[in-house]
Design brief:
The chain is an alpha+beta fold. It is 39% helix and 18% strand. Strands 2-3-1-4 form a 4-stranded antiparallel sheet. The longest helix has 14 residues.
């Protein structure tokens, strides 16, 4: 586990709020020099605390159906599973693939232009892997109220103690 002090956590909160915030603005808010902030950010990137990436909004460029799919597999071996994962990874309409525990094995997020496009994508997957897909459920995402946003100061307990 990587150690994060309160200033690291504040920097992470600021970057989540506005990933394009200048080093000057971050340094003023955190009370460190620009060089110190830059070193901390570079260290956290190197330590894989976060990675810089833009977050796209598919609905804003024509992909209005964002669908969460849960898949239960059966009668498969390692080769079948790997072929299935690779197929999903290579599909440009699959935004996320997550192995999960519980009654489902895999969760995927499909981005589709409309219901017909979604139907085509799901038919292709289900037809290609019908021997290992035991069950499938999907739900259309109607909105997002919180997505990958962590209050690092609170999460790490710095709101309760002094650093």
């Amino acid at each position: 586990m990587k150690e994060l002090d309160k200033k690291d956590c504040v920097i992470l909160n600021l970057l989540q709020e506005d990933c394009r915030m200048s080093l000057t603005d971050i340094s003023k808010k955190v009370g460190l020099s620009i060089d110190s902030v830059k070193k901390r950010i570079n260290r956290m990137i190197k330590d894989k605390i976060f990675f810089s990436k833009i977050q796209l909004r598919p609905r804003n460029f024509g992909f209005c159906n964002i669908t969460d799919v849960r898949i239960k597999l059966h009668n498969y071996n390692g080769e079948d599973y790997e072929r299935f994962r690779e197929y999903l990874k290579n599909n440009p309409c699959i935004a996320e693939i997550i192995s999960i525990s519980g009654p489902w094995d895999i969760s995927i997020v499909i981005t589709a232009k409309d219901a017909l496009h979604l139907g085509k994508i799901t038919r292709e997957i289900r037809n290609e892997f019908n021997k290992i897909i035991e069950n499938w459920t999907e739900s259309l995402t109607t909105g997002v109220c919180k997505f990958e946003n962590y209050d690092m100061v609170k999460l790490m307990g710095y709101d309760k103690k002094e650093s």
